[in-house]
Amino acid sequence: MSISAERVRTAALPSFVSQDAARAPAETRHLRVLMATRYGRLGASSRLRMLQYAPALARFGINCTARPFLSDRYVAALYGSGPRLPSVLAAYARAFGLASAIRAHDLVWIEKELLPFMPASLEMALLGGKKFILDFDDPWFLRYGPGANPLARFLLGGKFPSLLARATLTIVANDSLRDWAHDSGARDVLLLPTVVDLNRYPMVPEPTQIFTVGWIGTPVTAPYLDAIAEPLRRLAEEAPLELLIIGAPGVEIPGVSCRHLPWSEAAEGELLGRCHVGIMPLSDDAWSRGKSGYKLVQYMAVGRPTVASPIGANRAIVRHGVTGFLADDTASWIDALRRLRDHDALRAHMGRAARARVAAEFSLQETAPRFAEAIRGVAES
Prior knowledge:
By secondary structure, this protein is of the alpha/beta class. The protein folds into two domains: 209 residues, Rossmann fold, CATH 3.40.50; 164 residues, Glycogen Phosphorylase B (Rossmann fold), CATH 3.40.50.2000. Helices cover 41% and strands 14% of the residues. The chain contains 19 helices and twelve strands. Helix 12 packs across helix 17 and helix 15 crosses helix 18. The longest helix has 18 residues. The two termini are 33 Å apart. The relative contact order is 0.14.
């Protein structure tokens, strides 16, 4: 079921923010918010869920200071082959300054948790009586839940319920995470999808070369492409086809022509404009069902139709037959991509519908004013 514009715009606001207040001008009193992000700008979740909001929130008198837990060096090592341990040790060493940073701000906005693999009681001690917001774009609670390391599950299985119960507001990226937050004891929950800044994603004409299927991600998420290797091979046998892979060098699919481009924050929109269709295959598991579906929003923002597995947030983002297609097996993937390959007018129509949907429901321009009001509601509740 799709998330309607009205539902995202109003019904998802937390209980302490009235509908009238959500539309009112921001207060003049400035707020100081500490962004306790998990990563720096190289980490997609930190960059998109929090850091990209800072300039927009500043216009509403909300001044944000970012304090990443893990450095960009850690993320580069995670996606490459360098050692991660030095960056992890440095991160915990920096944590000794958290208490003073927290005291210097009016509110703390936490991405997932302050201190990974540390108990909730320690985080509560650092926070003192400070109000805080928790933000989730993935089912991070699975790290300490069933299937996790037995010791981590024993020591930290109750961490996130404890943090949720104490947080003034919990922000989640999709329906699955919202249901988990409610069931786990969150006091108030705001459904805020992961969005794009439309100014960074202009609509561009389609490429003139052979039919190009685009995928953007990281080496960590590249294994999801295995699920559609067979459909792509069979389509490549029918007619020229290229798979454009952004951000995961070295990934190849036998029988499919693959072109690789390095990821660049500054050039994301331009890079995505080099494909005709964007894809998001997923495996059907607990982690995938909690993912935010952000790459679909990116494709749609540049006016490209999408094909995606009907799992988790994908079902809410893609309007089947309007902005793209949902495909759950080899035959449906082949059919969807073939239809988009063979019908230029269909691609153009779906691409325009996709861009309009992003502008209405998945853009920074749409969500920032509502989010600013929610932050003020937290500070003043």
